[in-house]
Amino acid sequence: MITTLSIKNYALIEKLSIDFSKGFSIITGETGAGKSIILGALGLVLGKRADLTSLKNKEEKCIIEAHFEISKYNLAPFFEANDLDYEPDTIIRREILPSGKSRAFINDSPVNLQVLQELGLFLIDIHSQQQTQELSDENVQFKIIDAVCSNNEVVLEYQSLLKSYKADKSKMNLLVKKQAESAKEQEYNTFLLNELMEAQLKSGEQELLEVDFEKLNNVEIIKESLDKSLAIANEEQIGVLNNLKEIKVALQKIASFSTDYSFLLERTASLAIEFDDITDELNRCSDKLINDPEQLDLISQKLQLIYNLQKKHQVATVDELLQIQTKLEDSVFELGNIEADISKLTNAIEEKGATLDILSVTIHDNRVNSIPVLSEKLVTILATLGMPNVRFNIEANKTVTYFNNGKDELQFLFSANKGTDFGLLKKVASGGEMSRIMLAVKAILARYSKLPTLIFDEIDTGVSGEIAIKMGEIMKEMSHDMQIFAITHLPQIAAKGDAHFKVFKSTIGDDTQSELKLLADEERVVEIAQMLSGTVISDSALNHAKALLN
């Protein structure tokens, strides 16, 4: 229940703080006094969007704060799921800054409007004359029936399974589509993969093959150069080796005379050893060099194959070709698994569908059994509200379609008078009749489900006299189990409240303000008398007001 509402700088309200109690509270006031402003402020607390026109003083921020006692609402899981601090006395605050920016807080933790709206559904239910039209909505009608037959748990189980069922069907449809699209590419991808696998590519082999190709392709000139080098090195008279030896002998004769000559000898000796190794390597290279046209042809073919594959796949290295090969392997492997995945999903969908069918039968049977009970209760309550001949024709018919709340289609027809045909609520019920039906529905739901604080905004439009008294009595009875507010112009209803608040305008200088005041007993008599007789209050109106209150 809401315990406190504070408003600062909103519409015609400069500053207001009011406490509310449990039970049945009445809000009255002349047209234009500011009742809609109070509802607008509550709407902001419940997550409705705001704009700068809401600010009374455009230079200051607007603050609306509401305290709620929620210990009996079982909302701790909601707070935990949204990472919020749970407090039995929860505070919701909305701020509208002069810049137009809006902020929302739950127990001083900033939240977005979606979280605020979700929490608001558990806290306050505002019903106006316009919202009575919701009764014509099939989903609303199903919720009424399901509340009466205690279907909520099985419907939640059905909805959870339906969500999974639809997700599986969506996955399967994507796989089937992918399979159809991939089938066209599978043959070509398999061809490309086989082509790469047959090439037996290895990382780094292209560079080695290109080196071997150059050797074999130029074997004659290489052989000639190696042999010429060996001849120059090994010539007996003028060969490099022989000349190095002679230099070494000459330097040995003078090495002892100076460190410079000794160092030259060491360098010559090292050079002789290094050149001796070079000569040995020239011999080995010459011995290994073979003119092999067949090997050259094989290497040429392999290189040409690599070059063709690189050109085909628009890459420059063997490593890139190997990456493409891996991707093609994954693609072909994935295509092979799609059929298996489709088969698994098909089985899962069939199993979930069978369970959904079982749940939908339970939901349907519960509805069918509860419809006579709901109809009887509606007729009984509406008879006291001046509709003695009202009749309902409610049928839940099975279908093969999985709807969000079962497999039923609902026929919710209504007749207000004897001799008239049944018709849809929105077509045959008047505004006053819709108001009374809405009140009857809420009265019934209050017995079967935990409703939040209910605010009836002039739901009594179109009724008067004894019917208004009965409506007040019904709301009074509902308030024994929940907090009820009624914004009304009818004194018969106003007299039934446990607390009576009046909305009025006051003028201070050039400034007009809306205020909300809790009326004392004597003030309440005057307010109800004024509702009965107008501005000039007669003695009979005062006596009538006292009688209504008593």
UniProtKB/TrEMBL annotation:
One Gene Ontology MF term: ATP binding
CDD domains xref list: ABC_RecN
Any GO BP annotation: SOS response
Cited Gene3D superfamilies: P-loop containing nucleotide triphosphate hydrolases
GO cellular component terms, A-Z: bacterial nucleoid
UniProt KW keywords: ATP-binding, DNA damage, DNA repair, Nucleotide-binding
Superkingdom in the source lineage: Bacteria
Listed InterPro entries: DNA_recomb/repair_RecN, P-loop_NTPase, RecF/RecN/SMC_N
Domain RecF/RecN/SMC N-terminal intervals: 2-506
Family: Belongs to the RecN family.
Free-text function comment from the UniProt entry: May be involved in recombinational repair of damaged DNA.
Official protein name in the record: DNA repair protein RecN
